[in-house]
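Now produce a polypeptide, keeping tokens residue-aligned:
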Amino acid sequence: MQTPALPDLAHTAAKPVHWLATAAAMAGVVALAGLLQPRTATATATAPEQRTTTRGGAPVPAPDPAAARFPLECGTVGTTVARHATGDLDGDGRPETVAVAHCDAGSGTPPAGVYVLTRTNGAAPRVVATLVDPADRTTVKELDVRDGAVAATLLGYSSPDVPRCCPDQEEQVSWRWQGNAFVRSAGDFARSA
């Protein structure tokens, strides 16, 4: 066995004091880096995705519902966007689109979903909230966005015996963004359609 000609290197036999000195030095570097942040790195800075206008000064367009993929299972018949409305729902200065979509049944009254669409950085519109699920078996007669709220008239059925072609109940509902979710305010199905 041959012994090395060089003495042991200090870093190959680190002691706890070496680890503590390294940790203290790293903590100092991190703390210093935190203090030397540029002025634009604050929470109030306007991020590019929060701009209300494009670089050319034109308003940011609302998401196009025709380009969205809705969470509907329609098989081969595809989907139809029956109605849509736009407005700034969450107060960020950028418009969202609310779309009423259903399967393209061709006839009858297919149940509809009401979806909120948004777009970030020019990407395709994406569904960020479902206000009415098609499983609720309702259709949407009217849809409007005003003053940051979504308003709709929903048509439904009083019992399973009512033919699906002919809803017999009507409900006025609205949704408003509060905190981190849409909160629904509604009447009841008291009025007949």
The radius of gyration is 29 Å. Residues 37-51, 188-193 have pLDDT under 50 and may be disordered.
